[in-house]
Amino acid sequence: MKEKIQVFGRFLSGMVMPNIGAFIAWGLITALFIPTGWYPNETLGALVSPMASVLLPLLIAYTGGAAVYGQRGGVIGAITAMGVVVGSSVPMFIGAMIIGPVSAWVIKQFDRKVEGKVPAGFEMLVNNFSMGIIGAILTVIALKGVAPVVTVMNQVMEAGVGFFVDRKLLPLASIFIEPAKILFLNNAINHGILSPMGIQQVEEMGKSIFFLLEANPGPGLGVLLAYCLAGKGSAKSSAPGAIIIHFLGGIHEIYFPYILMNPLLLLAVMAGGASGIFIFQLTGIGLTSPASPGSILAILAMTPRGEYLGVLAGVLVAAAVSFVVSLPLLKFTAKGVDLEDSQEKVKHMKQESKGIVQEEKKEAFTGTVKKIVFACDAGMGSSAMGATVLKKKLAAAGFGDIEVVHSPVSSIPMDAQIVVTHRELRERAAHSNPEAELILITNFLAAPEYDQLVEKLKK
């Protein structure tokens, strides 16, 4: 069930994350040129609404369609998305997430039906006209049928969110957000759920608190600071480096293993997250665009003029509360536990598939290794960092000719001989590339498996 939720969440966030650059561009234009921005400009501020209501939904629909059926799926996804864009007065991010993949699936089924039945020389004609005819039909359906339904869904969601916002209960969201992050659903929550709601709020208010709910680095910072003081072994020694990568680099996945070592620390990040949201809500601040990655630098870049103090206060309060709760939990419930012990514990507790466990134990590296893939949920954050660390170790050992790349766990290249990924992503990695040897880690910075891999390659 956890794997299915991760896959679904990854699909949702996968429609948004490749377009984060466009979201940032829109956020910067919003922060600079709206009437309350840094440099109010009526002409340039006119870009804000069309980008939010047309450009971003079309990009999402194209990306979702392309994920289902390549470029052809992306094109018909964008065509059909115009139906929900025109059919609604609010930005249709949810509609684009639905209609993009669905329309790509429809054209894919059509192509399968006519495959091998088109006379030679008529392929391009059939391809283009089928795209045009089916796209036109689906666009009308989206305009008349899908857009009104999604509009009602948006209104229901807004009413539900408004209930919590009006009653100052939004901090309770941390009870769900923080545990879900530890299960590697952070990108799905931030980009699949919170960002669409936030962008609609920006259209109305010029900023949104929803961009800060998951992206706040404060709770993770508090846990890592506690490990610096009360941690054991390599967990303590690697925590300072993890702080830099988490707080400045914005890679939140770096602190997940530290919580998996002591699940009671979930209480710390939940308390820290709720405290930060309380401060954000109390000061009435928000961001103009999703902060991705969740770095303090990215957050400050998306902060509206005059609201830096409130943002920094929320982050620091979240870190302080998380630290205060984490410190006694580490001192009194994790005596003698270090990162290596935790890795073995996690290994035995998380073994959910015997076949995959046997796959772990088998001897590999019997031939020449040419390609190693480091995989994470989105293929951008922790995997890029891990690939860099691994490249340096391989180069130092004389294996600089081995290609090391990073990739989303759901689309690992089939020519990869070895895949390095987090233990929580084991099942998805095995399904994505069942032929590759899996190297499972829990600490992206100081994983002993890196050195073990180098030694196996030497042998």
Task: Provide a compact summary of the structure.
The protein is mainly alpha-helical and 459 residues long.
What does this structure look like?
It is a single chain. With 459 residues, this protein is mainly α. Helices cover 68% and strands 5% of the residues. The protein has helices at residues 2-16, 20-33, 42-45, 48-86, 93-114, 123-166, 174-205, 210-213, 218-230, 233-247, 256-261, 266-283, 296-301, 308-333, 339-349, 354-361, 382-396, 426-432, 448-458; strands at 371-376, 403-408, 418-422, 437-441. The protein has a 4-stranded parallel sheet with strand order 2-1-3-4, sandwiched between helices. Helix 17 links the parallel strand 1 and strand 2 (403-408).
Low-confidence stretches: 342-364
Helicity level, as a percent range? 55-70%
Major sheet attributes: 4 strands, parallel
The average pLDDT score comes to 83
Global shape: globular
- Strands in their spatial order, largest beta sheet: 2-1-3-4
- Would you tell me the structural class of the helices and strands? mainly alpha
Radius of gyration: 24 Å
Q: Roughly what fraction of the amino acids lie in strands?
A: under 5%
Number of helices: 19
- The succession of helices and strands, N to C, reads HHHHHHHHHHHHHHHHEHEEHEH
* Overall strand count: 4
Q: CA-to-CA gap between the ends?
A: 39 Å
Topology overview:
Blueprint: H1 2-16, H2 20-33, H3 42-45, H4 48-86, H5 93-114, H6 123-166, H7 174-205, H8 210-213, H9 218-230, H10 233-247, H11 256-261, H12 266-283, H13 296-301, H14 308-333, H15 339-349, H16 354-361, E1 371-376, H17 382-396, E2 403-408, E3 418-422, H18 426-432, E4 437-441, H19 448-458
Parallel strand pairs: 1-2, 1-3, 3-4
Helix pairs in contact: 1-4, 1-7, 2-4, 4-5, 4-6, 5-6, 7-12, 9-10, 9-12, 9-14, 12-14
